[in-house]
Amino acid sequence: PVTDGSRELHSLCAQLEFLLQFDLKEKRSFFGQRKDYWDFLCQGLARRRQEHEGVRFVTCLDKLKTPVGRGRAFLRYCLVHRQQSLQLCLLDPESLREWYYARSPFLSPPHRAEILGSFYELDGV
């Protein structure tokens, strides 16, 4: 079984995090805190009017103080609960252009299709 201590899980999450942070535009909150892929995911789900249990769960975790920590917790939540939230966020080209520079694989239709296919395959694991 895969647990929080599994090397495979840590490796997968590190790769997902790298992919989500690659060529991410630098954005700041009103208070100057740097935004990260967590903010991209929250905005993407909000745009799709998706009330997401994972977002509620992560925002209730008082130990998590940074967007990166919240993003990591959200990725694990989605994997454990077989949520397709990442896929939903990657289906909005306007949001992708708002958050990512041109080198991002999310902005390349063939790469995005390959990434989405891999995410859907994770549902069966």
UniProtKB/TrEMBL annotation:
Q: What GO cellular component entries does it have?
A: autophagosome; late endosome; lysosome
Q: Which Pfam families would you find in this protein's record?
A: RUN
Coiled-coil residues are: none
Record protein name field: RUN and FYVE domain-containing protein 4
Q: Where is the RUN domain?
A: 3-125
Query: PROSITE patterns in the record, alphabetically?
Result: RUN
Q: Which SUPFAM superfamilies match?
A: RUN domain-like (SSF140741)
Q: Which GO terms describe its biological process?
A: plus-end-directed vesicle transport along microtubule; positive regulation of autophagosome maturation
**PANTHER family per record:** FYVE AND COILED-COIL DOMAIN-CONTAINING PROTEIN 1, RUN AND FYVE DOMAIN CONTAINING 4
